[in-house]
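Form 7-S
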Amino acid sequence: MLNNIRHRFKTFRSKQFHRLEIQQLQAELLTESTLDLSYLILIVGSCAIATFGLLSNSAAVIIGAMIVAPLMLPIRGLAFGALQGNIILFRKGLIALTVGTVLAVLMAWGLGILVRLPNYGSEILARSRPNLLDLGIAVAAGGISGYAKVEPKISGSLAGTAIAVALMPPICVVGLGLSQANWSLSIGASLLYLTNLLGIALSCMLTFLLAGYASFKRARKPLILALALTGILLIPLGVSFARLIRQAELQTSLERALLNRTVTFQRLELLRTETNWLANPPQVRLNVRAKAPVTPRQVQLLEEFIEREMGQRFTLIFQVGQVEEVRRSD
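Output:
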């Protein structure tokens, strides 16, 4: 079956595109995977942009760091070196990736200590809870990245795949978590980084294999190893995905109970809810609009009601926007 897929893929390419020579592709990947001054400058710049964007909770700034995407290049070299049994290319890619990762973690750790934010925003917290969806994104983006390398006509899509898979922000979150000794945050971000790394590498290897740049006999062992490592990640990612589904169900039930079964919300307009599931008990921020203020006693009664109804404690935090009626004066 695999040989049939490869044959059709190669036939399609031979009709539509000019295939790069293996020597040329190896030379280009070797250049991209070399640890030099330009690569280090990109690492430092991308890490600084991503860390400041995370600290300021700015999605636009973080996207800017993703576009730089220096870590994507050695991963492709590492994947191709593994397929071809090219020790030099594999070693160069591994060294560049390791040095870039360690440097980014140290930079983010130092910036986290320097800034000393008491609490981190949603952009940081969101990168500490990877699940199966993140693996799917990494595999899809890695495949496009590998194909963009063997097909120069679509090389411009690399920026889009870099934004989708986002390698640098999780590394920065690892450093920021270490700066606050927040081990759960660092471990979660490390899992996301490994998920992206293995997903990209595995998908690039399959793309290079299907494009005819390696024989299946030579690629079998590295592919099996990559699949085994990815399979290990499926356990925590699957647990996290099940937790995500459970949390979504709980939040829906919570909103329904508050809106339909409480007197307090008959005079409130619920605008938005946001739940921090890392807190114990989970913290639910309710952005509401009201004519009269919400009292602490009302919040306490609502928390007790939710605990009785759902069998789980929640901390409710109301963010109230006052509604003022203004009429013309006679």
